[in-house]
Amino acid sequence: MQFFLDTANIDQIKEAASWGILDGVTTNPSLLSKEEGKFEDIIKEICRVVPGPVSVECVSTKVAEIIAEARELSKLADNVVIKIPIFLDGLKATKVISEEGIQVNTTLVFSPNQALLAAKAGARYVSPFIGRLDDITHDGMELVEQILVILDTYGFNTKVIAASIRHPRHVIEAAMMGADIATIPFGVLDKLLKHPLTDLGMDKFLADWEKVKSR
Ligand code: G3P
After folding, report:
1. Homologous superfamily of domain range 2-213
2. 0.90 cut: is pTM over it?
C-alpha cells in the first residue's frame, strides 16, 4: 500500500519524507489556503521534496479552461498529477488530458458510478472521500470496496486513493480492502506509529537493561 500525505504543509511533508515511508502528496485548494506564499512556489517545493506523485487541483469549471489549466499546472514539475473533480466538464477534460499523457486524480468521488466514469475517461487515480461520507452517516468504506471490485472486474489501470481519512481505523480498513493508496493527514499518520503498550514495553526493557548493564 502506498502512503500519500494529504497536506500542502512543507514541514509536515519533510517530516513524513524523513520517515522513509512517503510515496506522494495530495493537495487541494482548502489545504493550500492554510499555507503562506505563492501557490506555484509551494507546489514546486513540495515536488522537489517528494519524488512521487503530487496532486494539484484544477479550479476551472469549463472543459476548455480545465484542459488549459491542467496543461499549465503540469509544467510546474514532472511529478505533478492533475486533480479534477468529477463533473461533466471535468470528465471531458480528463479524457483529453489523459490521452496527452497527463495523469489525472479524479476527486470528490462519492459513488461507484462516478469512479467508473473516471476510469473509463482514463483517470490514473480516483479518490473516494471516506470521512465526508461517514460524516453524513453513509459508509465511506463500502464505497471504497465497491470501487475496488468494479475496477478489478474490468481490469482498469486506475488506482484507488482512500481519501478524506480521519483516523487510523480508516487506514486499516482501506489496507484490508486492498486500496492502492491511502492519503493521510499528518495527524493521523503520527497516530499509526503509536501504541501505549509499545511505550510501556520500551520503558520496561530500558529499565531492566540498566540492571543488566550495571552488573
Ligand atoms: O484528499 C481529500 C481530503 O483532503 C479531504 O479531506 O478531511 O477535508 O474531508 P477532508
Report:
1. Aldolase class I (3.20.20.70)
2. yes
